[in-house]
Amino acid sequence: xxxxxxxxxxxxxxxxxxxxxxxxxxxxxxxxxxxxxxxxxxxxxxxxxxxxxxxxxxxxxxxxxxxxxxxxxxxxxxxxxxxxxxxxxxxxxxxxxxxxxxxxxxxxxxxxxxxxxxxxxxxxxxxxxxxxxxxxxxxxxxxxxxxxxxxxxxxxxxxxxxxxxxxxxxxxxxxxxxxxxxxxxxxxxxxxxxxxxxxxxxxxxxxxxxxxxxxxxxxxxxxxxxxxxxxxxxxx
Length: 236
Known about the structure:
36% of the residues lie in helices and 26% in strands. It is of the alpha/beta class.
């Protein structure tokens, strides 16, 4: 993986009907990097990720490597190497854990970085429940499954929306360790979070959104030192 696989947004605007939601968003996730996108509810974080994935129409420029993403369908964007884990844990409840993982595999992929054994090593609980219907899993287990199913598509960059929402502290730490392991395998991560501590712990750079705009860009140390940004745009 090299810099040609960077994700770049340049002056991106997005709309829901007549509502102007994103206002000139410019940001970057470099290959193999963990970047967090922070902000309060309604700040535009999820809309940013959905626009990258082609689920919301956008204007401006969004490139992944040399490929322009705006105007493409979501499945086309996925085949270019982007993975998306939505906030709602979009599993198939009547299928087993293993069947859900199988659906995540990208057909025709050569030498994928991830296998069933990798998933079960990361989350042994999923191995224990591999033949159980996904709909009866706990919230934490469903989050594990959603993350793993996306990885089975062998993305170069994975975007994860609120992965720790509603999870017990021990599971939150497990997810944080999991994301760090993704970086070790050369996968870039765009982490959409509200939990400041966990985001700053594992990220190399941070963006903060407010009212559909980027209001801060810097390192975790920069954000910790900026009490105004934390109070005005993050703390509730």
